[in-house]
Every structure is written in structure tokens, then in C-alpha cells.
Design goal:
Blueprint lengths: L9 H20 L11 H12 L9 H4 L2 H16 L1 H12 L5 H10 L8 H31 L1 H16 L20 H16 L1 H10 L7 H25 L11 H13 L16 H13 L12 H15 L5 E3 L2 E3 L1 H28 L4 H12 L14 H30 L15
Antiparallel strand pairs: 1-2
Helix pairs in contact: 1-2, 1-4, 1-6, 1-17, 2-4, 2-17, 4-5, 4-8, 5-7, 7-8, 7-9, 8-9, 9-12, 10-11, 11-12, 11-13, 13-16, 14-15, 15-16, 15-17, 16-17
Amino acid sequence: MQKQGDKLTPARVLVLGFALLILAGAILLTLPVSTYTEINFLDALFTATSAVCVTGLVVVDTGTFFTPFGQIVIMCLIQIGGLGFMTAGTIIFVVLGRKITLKERLVIQESLNQLTLAGLVRLTKRIILFTFILEAVGALVLSTRFVPLYGWQTGLYYSVFHSISAFCNAGFDLIGGFRSLTIFNNDYVVMGIIMFLFIIGGLGFTVLLELSEKRNLRKLSLHSKIVLFTSFVLIVLGTLVVLILEYSNPETLASLGITSKLASALFTAVTPRTAGFNVIPTDRLYDATLYFLLALMFIGASPASTGGGIKTTTFSTIIIAVLSIIRGQEEVFVFRRRLPFVIVNKALSIIVVSILLVFVVSIILTITESADFMGVLFETISAFGTVGLSAGLTPELSPVGRLFIIITMFAGRVGPLTLTLALAQAIKKKAPFRYPEEKILVG
């Protein structure tokens, strides 16, 4: 008979690990020392889920509702959730001198989206070191702005919190009043370092480490080339679209100077890639802009990063495959390399499952919430993509609505990840026979 422990596949361990971390965080946030006023368990669970899944959607104001203890709990959940609990656990095992077993290596492999088991522990150590260095640099730069505003103690604390939140693409802030970073929409230092941190965090550890080693774009792997090219195109295209659509909007960019307009448009274009911060009020954007941001949120960041979404490589794979079909090519080529159809099938499956999840949750929220469809769809995709941008609906959600957003955030964080592994395992098991082929009409 199969042992019970053998049924815990790496995908199941990841799901269970994230769930237990969220539960532990929710319990800590319900303690009297965590909040200035009493919080119910559902709101604590929502906040813990948002932190661990590095989303940033909040039902209570982080800066004013939670005490410093509660805020530190949220910051720790963000850090562990951004790195992945197995990455953090690996470092603890190494410090304690505990041997990393094969099963644990398989879970780490799944967590980091790696293709092989070779060098996983060394990779994890480098990820931790890379993360702490970048977050320290970010905190140091932010302190030059926050310390003069809030004093040494609060300023340094805010600098560390926002640096971690930015690199992990969490979007949590301590400014208060659900304002995010709107009071800094003319501060290029704050905007610049926050953007730098969440763009770097969203590229993926695999790409970052490869860039630090090779330092030559031509020598990069196909994965890194696609990530960098797709990210660049989305940033440039997003900035132009936001600038054009919001240029004359009196509620967002109209009152700003040309430099501030460009900076705010750039920030607004890159933050939907799962960062969650905003320097102009999201609920004041035109519907056309919100609709465009939906696509950016759905795509999200890159594999093995601190962000969510279907991932840039998944999106690029499908676009490349479609272009290949249009050109009449029988195989998929990019950067003088051929993509296996297994990868195309994985990408297609992830997108279809993701669309179905968003579709179902959106329908449910239109029934449970008193909000227009655009607001419901925006909040749902923001939760799935672990973005954290809100059009103002999240604090007003009903208990049922909050529960479904919790499920969506959790599924958005672990769903595509576990689906990829499940597909990889299924593909390895070849059938002992092949059915006869027959064509059908499509299109």
C-alpha cells in the first residue's frame, strides 16, 4: 500500500505550505497586540492571504488600523510569501545544518520553476543574498526621503517596510488613508526606487542571476531573452497608452507638468505587472485605461519572480504560436530557437484555466456585490494577478465577496505554478498506444 506521506506531491506541499502560513498569519493578526481596534477573523484572513500571496488588496488601512507589531507580522508574511516559503525554509535548514532531502529539493524545484534539481540549494542561497542586498539598497535610498518627513525611527521603519513590499511586488503601504503613494507623485526618488525594486523583483530570480553572471544579452538563455524583451515591450507600450488616454483627465494627469505626467504614466503602466502601488488614484482613471490595465494585470510578472499573473513567458509563447500559425509555419520559432509544442500546450492550458477562474469569480461577485461590472472584473483580475490595485471595491466587499477574493488570491499565487508541474508530470507518462487521427473544423 502507498504510504500517506507519499501522496504529498511537491505541488500539494506548496499549496499546503502557503495555506498553513496564511492561517498562522491570520491568527497572529487577530491578537489584541496586532491592531488598535478589534478585527474579525475573516478580515485578518483576508489581510494574511493578501500579504502571503503578495497581492496588496486590503479591507482595512494597513497604516492606521494595525499596530507596529501587526505591521511587522504583515512585512514578514510579505517577505516569506515573495521568496516562497520553501526558499525561506531552505535557508533555515542550512543554518541549522539539516540535510535537504530529495523530496524537499523537488518542492524547491517547483517553487522556483526550475527545470532540473542540480544546484538548487546554491541557487536558493544566492536568491536570499540577492534579495537582501536589493532590499537594503532600496531602504537606504527611501530613507533619504522618509527620514526628513517622518523622523529617524519612523522614517527608517517606513523605508524598510516599503522596500520589502516593493521588491516582493506586494503593494502594501503605511502612508494611511488608502492613499498608497499618491502623495509622492512628484517625488522622482521615491517613484524611481519603488519602480526599480518591483520591476527587478518581477523579472524573476533566474533572469537576475543569469544577468549577473553573463552580463551579455547575446549569451542569455532563451527564457531570459523572452522575459526581458516582453517586459520591455509591455513597459513602453503601457506607458504610451496610459499617457495618451489620461493626458487630459483632470482627475489624474491633466494638472501635472510634462515630466510628472511621463513619470506618473510610466509608474501607472508598470505597477499593474503585480506591484500594486499607485501614484494617481486608480478609481479616477478612465474606463478605457482601466480596461487596458486589466490585460497588464492578467499577464503579470515573470516565472520564479515575486509577482503573479499568467507570466510574461506564458503570454509570449501564445502570441508567438499564433503568429507562427498566421505565417503558415508548422513549428514555433523565436530568437532562432524552436519551442517544443509541450511548452505551447502548457501555456495554453494555464491561460484557459486562468480565464475560467476569473470568469467564474466575476460572475459570483456581480451577484454578491453592489458594484458595476468593470469594478468587479478589475478587482477579480487584480486578485488573481496578485496585483493589489483597487478601483475602490475591496473595502466594501461583503463577507461572501471577501471569501471569494481570498480564494482568487490564493489560486492566483499557487494555481499556475501547480498546474505547470501537474502538466509536466502528465506529459512524462506516455500512453502505450495512440488513437487514430481525425481532423475537425475550427474557427
